[in-house]
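hey so u asked for the seq, here:
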Amino acid sequence: RTFQKCLNCCGLRCLPLHIFMDAFQGCYKNGTDGTRDYRYFAGLYLVFRYLAFIDSLHYFITHHLNPVFFLVIFSFSFALCRPYKNNCFNVVDCLFHAILALVVFVFSSDLLSAS
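ran it, structure tokens below
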């Protein structure tokens, strides 16, 4: 809702953009069924993925920060908030990021021991 209000204020009231935003945020709880509005997780998902990507590039160059940190935080945020309408998506996304964090941790520790 907030993003669509910003689009209306900026004069970007085109229907295809509203349809895209509805499809982009459609799988998240929208707050109409007595639940909280979690549609902002669509943007948060992109921000976390971007931070994890930048951190992984930085890690493989300097070996200072571990990209597992962002993946674990992201997995816990999905486990605690459960933002999807379908509970199966909540479990799958949480497990996916937990397994991805484990794989990244194992391979990053192998790279450190090899060098």
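The two ends are 50 Å apart (CA to CA). The CA atoms of residues 4 and 48 lie 22 Å apart.
lmk if thats what u needed
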